[in-house]
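Changelog-linked ticket: nicotinamide-adenine-dinucleotide example.
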Amino acid sequence: MSKKPQHSVRVDLGDRSYDIIIGQNLLSRAADFMTPHLASKKVLIVTDETVGTLYRDKINLNGLDAAWVTVPVGEASKSFAQLQIVLDAMFTHGMERNDTIVALGGGIVGDLTGFAASVFKRGCRFIQIPTTLLAQVDSAVGGKTAINVPQGKNLVGAFYQPTLVLADMDALSTLPLRALKAGYAEILKYGLLGDAAFFAWLKDNGPAVIGGDKDAIAQAVKVSCETKARIVAGDERERGQRALLNLGHTFGHALEAEAGYSGDLLHGEAVSAGMEMAFDFSVALGLCHSRELDALRAHMKKTQLVGIKDVAPLLGKPDALLSHMDQDKKNENGAITLILARRIGEAFVQKNTIRETLSNYLKYLAVEYGGEPQGRISRS
Ligand SMILES: NC(=O)c1ccc[n+]([C@@H]2O[C@H](COP(=O)([O-])OP(=O)(O)OC[C@H]3O[C@@H](n4cnc5c(N)ncnc54)[C@H](O)[C@@H]3O)[C@@H](O)[C@H]2O)c1
Ligand SMILES: O=C(O)C(=O)C[C@@H](O)[C@H](O)[C@H](O)COP(=O)(O)O
Ligand SMILES: [Zn+2]
């Protein structure tokens, strides 16, 4: 048994409360951690091809009646087709409502598996074992589950909480730098939306997080999970403050749609560019001082995050971006809701965005950056 430090963060949701266990050497003890949360021995592990290859032999499932299903890598797996494959595997394994489906992988596996859990026999038990930085700090926590449809990102899904989250820091040692940076974007989000002191910490420690420093990563995961757990506990179904977690996402999801959900633009990359847009738009509206945007840009440069310039080829069609934003789940009465900022550490929910103003901003982006091959996101 490892003596290395281990944190536990509680997501307080009454009888659906659960713990996020953050530590090292957890996969090798997975059965021990999971067993108290199981009502039966039968589990189905959902993973993707990469994670399955790396971790199938490393996760300890001793004593459990475990079956596996593997989906292809990439955003295209958040689909009805892969949902059907996962559900078929659950039926084939003879699962009942009290049996447990386990997501072993990044946010794509987690979102798909959680949605399968929510609909299988009207809801079965569900455990998250996130293996990307993004999934450990964000997607495995809070119960948003979804697949994508042609109309847009995450538009078919459910709020459905896991009973346990096991975040093993050791899994991150195999993560490519690009995926670490994509996860870092969601960590940065917590500083930007409501925690200037955390942003200050990231200014000093962000490069270490991206560089793979285990202590820095553990601290960043802990603070991120604490923040997300607090926000979710206060507003599970995004009727108010939870929408702050969507900072950068209204723009970001539109960019992902324009990129065709291809590997050219990862979710975390779209979010970092989207957060820069949210601050830039806030400055343009006179809601935020330009020095805040400058500070964000300086940090994004230092940590080499994807920014507006990098997504230039996706900015050439402002009307298309606007129509993607029209499908956003935060919208009310036909008007777009955006998460904007007053300063670093203070974001707010802006309902009823004036359409013409947003359209003009997107047109400005198209003229200023659009179509120029300044960045590395390729035109597909
Ligand atoms: N539900 C939520 O609250 C929430 C929050 C944030 C993001 N998301 C969703 O999460 C998805 C993005 O998740 P992601 O960034 O984890 O992407 P991902 O699941 O595609 O994982 C990124 C890549 O890393 C690989 N990988 C995973 N773990 C690995 C490991 N330990 N070692 C080596 N390679 C590994 C995967 O195979 C994949 O190629 C998006 O669909 C996004 O919409 C959901
Ligand atoms: O948990 C939340 O709430 C979030 O918004 C977290 C986001 O990082 C995540 O990408 C989420 O899936 C986006 O939610 P959506 O409702 O815009 O699909
Ligand atoms: Zn996100």
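Closing comment: Example verified and attached. The first strand starts at residue 7 and ends at 11. Residues 214-234 form the longest helix (21 residues).
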